[in-house]
């Protein structure tokens, strides 16, 4: 049984959940205007996986995301103004307006650059973990990826290498049960992902829903073990994206999933559930502060300049 959250912890987790939810809802509202120049893969519905893990981490710990990485970026403390500016393609964006939503990075918060290519950030996260180990640093790397990435050959190679070297890495599979439009049952002979991971000698735990307390409590335990030199650990977190694979809308008329699935996950929405744990006045204050923070970030993006034309030829090759 997961112990109840302390009021301050509940409020902190709620703030992060709510911030991610509202950022992505605002992104979805702006997107049809064509002000946002990048494709967007929204994490609405999946926020608890990012928040439950990232809240445990220290500032010097490292997070590696996927192309659906807004939630992890924000949960780790990534710069919100720089994120919106990047989505707008502006020079003040976290990658100078060149990379967009799928390639967010903020190394001031130790958020590694994400990638649009499925599975490719996993071995890069391992490289960072290997460097940390070689330097004798007391830091942890969290590698986020979706269920589709577990089908890439590099995933198995990464598990083996991490186990062999006892790397300080926490693998977190955000299993939203679809690889674009293809459900798990059409891709996996069995759904026993944790069992497959355990064959590499890596402890693996599956969470059947997005309960943020359970994820948070477990992450506290495994991160402490990783810091103690026990090597990698693995978490499979079942979750559900509420919006379409890419874009701001929904896709329940596309024929590959039922709206009833969404209804079932919406009924146990972690943002709402955690919000009800907090006194009304405090929750209202948090909500107001979040709206102000987002409005400031959007205004910053709106007012920022586009990159000058000569920037087209920079950062193409290393010096």
Defining key terms:
two-stranded antiparallel ribbon; 319 residues; Rossmann fold; 42% helix; alpha/beta
In short:
The protein has 11 helices and 8 strands. It has helices at 7-30, 47-54, 70-75, 80-87, 121-135, 153-165, 193-198, 212-227, 259-266, 270-275, 280-303, and strands spanning 62-64, 111-112, 141-146, 169-175, 178-179, 182-183, 203-207, 233-238.
N-to-C order of helices and strands: HHEHHEHEHEEEHEHEHHH
Shape-level CATH architecture:
3-Layer(aba) Sandwich
The major sheet is characterized as: 6 strands, parallel
Spatial extent as radius of gyration = 19 Å
- The CATH superfamily label reads Thiamin diphosphate (ThDP)-binding fold, Pyr/PP domains
**CATH level 3 topology:** Rossmann fold
The figure for the number of domains is: 1
Overall body shape: globular
The first-to-last residue Cα distance is 55 Å
The overall pLDDT average reads 95
Unreliable spans are none
Instruction: Provide the β-strand percentage band.
Output: 5-15%
| Neighbour order of strands in the largest sheet | 2-1-3-4-8-7
Tally of helical segments: 11
What is the number of strand segments? 8
Structural class, judged by helices and strands? Answer: alpha/beta
CATH top level is Alpha Beta
Report helical residue fraction: 40-55%
Describe this structure in words.
- It is built from 11 helices and 8 strands.
- By secondary structure, it is α/β, with parallel strands linked by helices.
- Strands 2-1-3-4-8-7 form a 6-stranded parallel sheet, sandwiched between helices. Strands 5-6 form a two-stranded antiparallel sheet.
- It is globular, with a radius of gyration of 19 Å.
């Amino acid at each position: 049984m997961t112990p109840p959250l302390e009021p301050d912890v509940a409020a902190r987790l709620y703030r992060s959940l709510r911030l991610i939810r509202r950022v992505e809802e605002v992104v979805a509202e702006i997107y049809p205007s064509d002000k946002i120049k990048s494709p967007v893969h929204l994490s609405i519905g999946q926020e608890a996986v990012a928040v439950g893990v990232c809240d445990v981490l220290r500032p010097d710990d490292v997070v590696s995301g996927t192309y659906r990485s807004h939630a992890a970026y924000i949960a780790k403390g990534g710069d919100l103004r720089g994120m919106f500016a990047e989505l707008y393609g502006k020079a003040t964006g976290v990658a100078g307006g060149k990379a967009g939503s799928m390639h967010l990075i903020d190394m001031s918060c130790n958020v590694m650059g994400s990638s649009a290519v499925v599975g490719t950030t996993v071995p890069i996260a391992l490289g960072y973990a290997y460097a940390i180990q070689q330097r004798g640093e007391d830091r942890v790397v969290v590698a986020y990826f979706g269920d589709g990435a577990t089908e890439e050959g590099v995933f198995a190679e990464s598990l083996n290498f991490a186990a062999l070297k006892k790397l300080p890495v926490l693998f977190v599979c955000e299993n939203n049960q679809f690889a674009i439009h293809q459900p798990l049952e059409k891709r996996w002979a069995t759904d026993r992902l944790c069992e497959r991971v355990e064959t590499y000698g890596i402890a693996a735990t599956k969470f059947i829903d997005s309960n943020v307390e359970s994820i948070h409590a477990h992450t506290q335990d495994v991160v402490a073990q990783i810091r103690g030199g026990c090597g990698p650990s693995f978490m499979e977190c079942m979750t559900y994206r509420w919006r379409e694979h890419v874009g701001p809308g929904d896709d329940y008329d596309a024929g590959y999933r039922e709206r009833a699935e969404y209804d079932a996950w919406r009924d146990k929405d972690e943002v709402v559930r955690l919000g009800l744990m907090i006194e009304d006045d405090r929750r209202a204050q948090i909500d107001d502060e979040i709206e102000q923070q987002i409005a400031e970030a959007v205004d910053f993006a709106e007012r920022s300049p586009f990159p000058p034309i000569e920037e087209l030829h920079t950062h193409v090759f290393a010096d």
